[in-house]
Amino acid sequence: MNTERNRIMNKQTEKVLDGLKTAMEAELTGHQFYKAASKNTKDPKGKETFSRMADEEMGHFNYLRHQYQSILKTGEYDFTKKFLKGPKKGGSSPIFSKEIQNRIKTSHFEVSALTIGMKLEMEAAGFYRKCAAKAATPAAKKFYTELSEWEQGHYDSFKNQLDLLKEEYFAANHFVPM
Predict the structure, then answer these.
(1) Residue 153 lies in a domain
(2) pTM
């Protein structure tokens, strides 16, 4: 009886660890993307924003790694280590400076970076929502919900910025909807 319980517990622990590994890989991918975006954008505020986001993604990675190591050692999450505060809710908080409007026709990289960033953040938020739904404890559910809300905040910021630029960018480049 005890052996069966241990086998079930080990399977559950394996699933949690696999989920954390997947999440850590995604955070590292986001970190690398935002680091590259910071390096390649011509917009000073964009550089600052993408650099901050690269740092945030690394913070997520480190926190997830801490949880992974805790589960390996103790079989439990360690919520004594606090997670970083998420982005502020609401507000458009543009990612790029107002000067981007002056060079909107040649802002291909910035528009692409917003689109790719939105995809990364949407996938991360969805992944964490699924983890929260499957969480075995209220503390784990809260942990994954906070991660999902953080990533959703990033997505919302990107979407707000893209919405501000999209029409002018499309018009300047003569893009016509199909």
Answers:
(1) yes
(2) 0.81
Q: How far apart are the first and last CA of the chain?
A: 63
Contact 144, 43 (CB under 8 A): no
Q: How many domains does the chain have?
A: 1
- 159: Cβ contacts below 8 Å, ≥ 6 apart: 118
Query: Tens of pLDDT along 24-81?
Result: 999 999 999 999 999 999 889 899 989 999 999 999 999 999 999 999 898 888 988 8
The single residue listed with the structure tokens 């004594």 is 80
Give the gyration radius of the chain's Cα atoms.
19
Helix spans in 41-107 (H): 44-74
What's the domain range around 14? Answer: 2-76+100-172
